[in-house]
Design brief:
476 residues; mainly alpha; four-stranded mixed beta sheet; 23 helices
Length: 476
Amino acid sequence: MKFFRNFLFVSLRKGLCLLLLVGQCLFPVHGHTMTIGEEREISERLLYSVRSEFRLLDDPDISQYINNLGGQVLTVAGPQYFNYHFFVVRSDQFNAFAAPGGLVFFYTGLIQTMKTENQLLSVLAHEIGHVVSRHIAQRIDKGGKISAITMGLALASLALGNPALSQGLFTGSLAAGQALNLHYSRQDEEQADRLSFGWLQKMHRNPIAMEEMLRTMRRITRYRSGKLPQYLLTHPNPEARLNYVESLVENDEKQKLPGYYHKTDNFRFLRFKYRVMLQSMDLEQMRIVCTNRATGPGDSEQRIMARYGLALIALEEHNYIRGNELLKKVREAYPEQDILEVDMAVLKLASGEVDRAVSLLTHAVKRDPTDMYAVFELAKAKSKQKDFDRAESLLSTVAHVMPDYSQLYYELGRIRAGQGRGGESNFYLGKYYLYEGRIKQAKQYLGRSARDTTLPDSLRDEAKAILERLKKLEEL
């Protein structure tokens, strides 16, 4: 996946987004056209607001995993007229949402209910199905009193399910009752499910995972009937969807072909899931979940990877001996999974074994220079060795691939501070706060940078441009 490269919140590069109705539409839609500029404003303003209201889990290993998975779906979905980016949002809501501009959000509360990669893939493909079918576009009416941007943001805010965010995204010109009419129709859901089903087939991924996720949704609907989760407000009728998908599975001739649907290795999904859980759950609650899975019934893969979750908890609690023991057991079960070597290096770095960490990470980066998780951790290790030139070079690589990753700017700020270059440190800390969604602090640091005549012109100009764009976004 190509990450968005605008200096502010990764706005799209030359992409037509999902509300843009042009002659190149994938599906015929009745409605009015939107300009590229309007669509970019929707996506940029939405991402600006999401960053301000929520925390995005944009660690390289989490972000690369879900974007690579999304890329697999897009490969079989065919040519697209805009770029996609997939985000993990820290929130206990049971929610996922495809927003304007090819932005797709998955909430940690939804991810925690999933058991396999195919289940995640089924929801991901369903959301892409809404985008390529232009279902949101069909709810935009530029001929009325409400602007297309306001209507698009209203739908997005409804799906994101945050009252404070909703108030910030659209004004009283759009009544709440109107917003509630913007949920997907039964026909929309069926079309997205059909597309998702077909794409999973092409990927040789068993679409029975769609049925499994819908059963989970039905259970949650019944359990929380007093207050439906946001996903089920915007994606209604889970019972009807389940019946429809069950009929697709029942008539799926490929189910009868031995070996057509590949047995999926869930190692990377479970590793992703436990890393998401670490950043979104109470540690004691996570410990209970992992311990029960590690010692309870179930397949060996689930039990082994539960130990990985326990290793993460040990690392978080600075219990490096216990974490090392658990990671070794996981590595014994998965000797071919090189990413566990990076995890071991992170543990060594945290425990003070910097040279050992550098050795492991150098080997990992040589093996796979596209692994930004290994590259970023090697940069941190090199910084601890006071090899600032190498650390900065590695961080530049991460910035090229993931320009919206906040922690890389924090590390650059630390390096500059250690070199006595306080002005440049302020600039990078300003960008760190920017991508953390802490706008007040970002303005303070970037304001200093814009006035700092000791800074290179390029950094001063960038600080001024970011501040100007922030001002415009706040006026939308």
